[in-house]
Amino acid sequence: MSGLIIILIVIVLLVLGVVGWTVGQYNSLVGMRNRVQESWRQIDVELNRRYELIPNLVETVRGYAAHEHNTLEDITRLRNQAASLASHEGATPSAQRAQAEEQLSGAVRNLLVSVEAYPDLKSNTNFLELQRALTETEDRIAAGRRYYNANVRNYNTKIESFPTNMIAGQFNFQKAAYFEVADHARAATDVNFGEISYRGGQPQGQQTPQALPQQQSGTPAMPADWGQGQQAPQGQPQQYGQAPQGQPGQYGQAPQGQPGQYGQAPQGQPGQNGQWPQNPQN
């Protein structure tokens, strides 16, 4: 009888342990889901503020840059599309909403860049105020997105991990969507260095010859780009031809009175890689 009681006690403890662990994991998932929803509400406030600023920005730009008609229409269309999706969203955004908001962000950035060509618009007080407000809003959206995505990552990892995935499936915990940055926003400016011309009118793709330092006083330095087999001017070293008189040669024959590197050695001096001089001293 006592053995049966012990077994029953062990079973009860195991059941209580499993129930307690399940309750703890469930409460953890609820807390993480609430943090995701709260962080998204902070972003949603800034997005709605942007909805209010964009119509005034469009009207201000239209008065100074009427031929930016297509750009202004695109911004208005994307703004209305994002606002429509926001009115039907729940506690967290859908992937479609996130994509629409990022397209709207890109359109606003492109418009603010394009107005650099209009000095009158850049000096307009109303435009400057709208530009400042939009820039601050975009900065807060970017900061809120980083915080939101961090919470989404932790929440989704918890849902997908074993054994909490069984609890998530049992109580219908759904994965949250990231508020991703679009590819066009990540792309860096493409700088084509091939369009930069060399100084002094040097053609593209050619190197400017470098002048050698002067070897003798009063003698100008000569460029070190002589072709193989050509003779160098007197008094100057040569790279690939014969060496001048009185100077060591690099690849040709050595001058008289100086040791040669690769050719025949001068008379009365030992050669490095060529023949020994006549009458070498023992």
TrEMBL record:
Q: Which UniProt keywords apply?
A: Membrane, Transmembrane, Transmembrane helix
Matches recorded under SUPFAM superfamilies: LemA-like
Biased region (Low complexity) positions are 200-216, 227-282
Q: Which Pfam families match?
A: LemA
This protein's GO cellular component annotations are: membrane
Subcellular localization: Membrane
Q: What is its main location?
A: membrane
What PANTHER family does this protein's entry cite? MEMBRANE PROTEIN, PROTEIN LEMA
Which family does the entry's similarity section mention? Belongs to the LemA family.
Protein name per its UniProtKB record: LemA protein
Which organism was this protein described from?
A: Raineyella antarctica
